Amino acid sequence: MIKSFISIISFVLAGVVFFMYTESAYSNTKVLQANIERYNQALEKTAELKKLQETLLSRFNAFSKNDIERLHKLLPDHVDNVRLILDLDHLAGTFGMALQNVTISDPASKSADQTVIGSIGAAKQKYDSLTLKFTTHGTYANFIAFMESLESSLRIVDLVALSLSPETQSGDSSGAKAPEASYKYDITVRTYWLR
User: Fold this and answer.
1) Is the dihedral of CA 44, 46, 47, 52 positive or negative?
2) CB of 193 within 8 A of CB of 76?
3) Alpha carbon distance 169, 181 (integer Å)
4) What's the pTM?
């Protein structure tokens, strides 16, 4: 009988120890194993991303510095109003023209943020734009050459508005060949950059 009694007490004690200590320790072990599995997956993902980063970096380094500079000029990652005006003025200067009365508008995203619909749509765009309005003077042939040069430049520029008016000329009564007519050009262009 004592053996039966000791067996029952031992069995009850084993049950109490199991439910009080072993079960909670086993549950904690399961949670720790799940955390270890998540961390291992994160480490594997990190290794994959590191490998992808190295691949992309090697591809980026394969580009020549000149090509990268041309890409930044084509679609810069910020707007540099002064550099844009200087570039356009230099381009116009090669054809004997100069920029005057330059006006730069606010970026499109800034004006779009003023409305509810604009603020919803602006967040989706990966680029922004601004308009640049200026006046220049010159012959029609020089103006055409300037516009063709602007069209073939690396910087993405859209012509938004253009108006031209003849400039008054003083007449020459000596009978010499009349100089080519000069015009005043009011030009508005839009340029873009990445956000």
Assistant:
1) positive
2) yes
3) 8
4) 0.58
* DSSP assigned state of 123: T
Residues 69, 75: Cα–Cα separation, whole Å: 10
> Comparing C-alpha atoms, which of 179, 173, 102, 187 is closest to residue 141?
179
In tens, the pLDDT along 75-86 reads: 777 777 888 888
Determine the Cα–Cα distance for residues 118 and 128; give it in Å rounded to an integer: 13
Q: Please identify which residue in the block is written with the tokens 């994959």.
A: 48
Please write the tens of the pLDDT for every residue from 40-63.
999 999 999 999 999 999 988 888
175 in the Ramachandran plot: left (φ > 0), alpha (ψ -120 to 50) or beta?
Answer: left
Quickly count: other Cβ atoms within 10 Å of residue 148's Cβ. Answer: 11
Residue 52 has which token pair?
């992808």
User: CATH class for domain 74-194?
Assistant: alpha beta
